Amino acid sequence: MALQKDSHYTYADYLNGPEDERWEIIDGRAYAMVPPSPTHQAVLRQLTLKIGNYLEDKTCELYFAPFAVRFPEKNERDEDITTVVEPDLLVICDNSKIDEKGLKGAPDFIIEILSPSTAGYDMIQKRRLYERHGVREYWLVDPTNRTVMVYALKEKNKYGEPEIYGSEDEIKVHLFDDLVLNMKEVFGPARKEP
Questions:
Q1: Gene3D superfamilies, per this entry (predicted)?
Q2: What predicted TM-score, i.e. pTM, was given to this entire model?
Q3: Contact residues for 162 (Cβ-Cβ < 8 A; gap 6+)
């Protein structure tokens, strides 16, 4: 199925799309996803290991892409939902939202790892989406510049100004009292540009 710029898509379309393509839908608009780079995957692996180890004996669960997150607006049927995304990494503390299709509703914590082709989409459309649906904490991890922007929900379900960190920093995860991530370990040694 070729994605059409002016078409309106639903979760039913997402399920019936070609298996060799990955895409997301926000408010009925489709966005193609590009395959991740090795650097993206290395950062994802480190975050998965560190957060996964921390959650080992906790009730919250860690998932990573591809894992469909459906954001209903009201009580529409699943196939009529117009927003479904696949965050790079997500933590879910309300396991009643999990079903065989993925997650229906907002996760508690999402991390997106930026790539040059999706940075604007993650920073604007997805940030607005996650804020609107009450994702408590949202991280934008930039492996190229080795920085992290952290958004946390404040009063009236709005994100405050982002906290910005570098590769030498340790970041406390707002969602948990005792989880701190060392970004030097997450990013690893600086890679030289080809």
A1: tt1808, chain A
A2: 0.92
A3: 140, 149, 150, 151
